[in-house]
Amino acid sequence: MRIDLHTHTFFSDGELIPSELVRRAMFLEHNAIAITDHVDITNMDHVIPNIVKAVDLSTDYITVIPGVELTYVPPSKMDAAVKKARKLGAEIIVVHGETVTEPVTPGTNMATVRNPEIDILAHPGFITMEEAELAASNDVILEITGRAGHNITNGHVAKMALAAKAKMVVNSDAHAPDNLMDEKTAIRVALGAGLSEKEADKAVNITPYEMVKRFMK
Predict the structure, then answer these.
(1) pLDDT digit string (tens) for 137-164?
(2) Range of 131's domain?
(3) Are 1 and 209 spatial neighbours (Cβ–Cβ below 8 Å)?
(4) What is the pTM for the complete model shown?
């Protein structure tokens, strides 16, 4: 089973239209995919309704789940952005965490893990133990990422998540066709972050399935 909960199309900075992204994921034996294009308060009214339309692809391909990646949203406006995204139809809410490769506003990780309405904190960089513990308490899932650059801190994220007993998922953060990962590659990313084989299987297969099983065909 392969479920990817963090991908992008040309509705933000991805290269593919939704139909091609979904078909390519199907070819790699995915069972479900969430389309989570970058949004903030300025563009979500346009992006989310168009992503919701992609759910119709589930009839012919694999299960498609509409979502968003809230990106560079000021921490003080995070909760309002989450509410609006949900109202517009986002079923999976990912937040662009404090990766070490971009100037994300400090406090973004904390604003995310405090909000149980958020599903995933993506590539959270040097996440603190306090943040990881809050993520565990609020069931905000921490991402182990396949995305080059953001994956520099995968080992640290895994260490904090394990210590705090926070859940993890392995996502591609795909922007281009070659970014999508089959199950074998996703497991390798998890093992490379320092997870055991059992922990890797949980992050790649079990936790993602538990998140989206209500959508599955």
Answers:
(1) 999 999 999 999 999 999 999 999 999 9
(2) 3-215
(3) yes
(4) 0.98
State pLDDT tens for residues 32-82: 999 999 999 999 999 999 999 999 999 999 999 999 999 999 999 999 999
> Which CATH number do you get for residue 108?
3.20.20.140
Tokens of 57: 């692809």
Tokens representing 76 are 């003080």
Contact 125, 98 (CB under 8 A): yes
Q: Name the 3-class secondary structure at 73.
A: coil
Locate the DSSP E strands across the chain. Answer: 3-4, 32-39, 63-70, 92-96, 120-122, 141-145, 168-171
SS3 call for 169:
strand
Residues in the chain: 217
